[in-house]
Structure formats: structure tokens, C-alpha cells
Amino acid sequence: MTQRGELATVMDRLAVDETVTEYAVAVDDGDWTAYRELFTADGRADYRSAGGIEGGAGRVAGWLAQSLESFGMRQHLIVNRRVRFQIHEHDTGDTARVRADYVSPMRLAGDGGLGPDLVCGGRYEFGLLRTPEGWRLSRVVVHEKWRRTS
Rounded to the nearest 5°, which phi and psi values hold at 75? Predict the structure, then answer.
């Protein structure tokens, strides 16, 4: 690979990582407009393993907004990101797959911030597509592995 090709790969890797980070921030901040804008027009998310739904980004954003409104604090940590670029329509690097682990502590609102905690963890599978607007999520699948309340 040439230096130019290596630089392009590094730049794509950074852009893909930024998209995953923006996803976590949108969920934590309850910014459902930003959440929807991170997806391709036909992008889908699957939260069934965590007791949720599967569907288009707009529908899932509505479900998330309703499901998470009772949590006054959310902090979404996405770690151990493994990025792989793939071929789409006979060109290289148009798609990316990211597998990453997550830990998500949340606190119920009320009780002066002393309410019970819910902490869950698992693995994400992100599918991304290069678009004229930049990298966008085409697919998000949550594989919840554990959950604890305190």
C-alpha cells in the first residue's frame, strides 16, 4: 500500500470512529434528531437482545426516546473497537464494519440523583456506508450480554 493509500485508510478509520462516538453521544444526550441523521436513509437498528425493537432509524429513535426518558443520567461507553473496511460495488473501502464492546450505566431520575442504577453491557455490530455526506450507519445491532440493577 502506498503512503497515500495508508493515509486515506487512517482518515477513514478516524471518520468511522467519530461516527460511532457521535452515536453514543446522541443516545446519551437524547438528541434523537442527531441520532437519525447518523443513519443512511434505509438504516436500521436492532435492540431486541436488550428487550427493545428492530426497525428503521426513525422508528427506533422514537422507541429509545420513550424508553430512556425515565433515566436522568446515561453514559454510554463504547470500547475495544475493531474496524474492518470492505468492498461495495466493485470499489474498495466503501463499507465498514465495527464490532465494539459497551458498558452503559444509567440512573433513574428522582430521589435527588440517588435513585437506583441500571448497568448493562454487551457488544455492538455497526455497519457503515460511505455517502456523499460522509460515513453513515446502515445497521446497528445490540447484543446485550449482561444487566445489573443496584
Answer: -140, 110
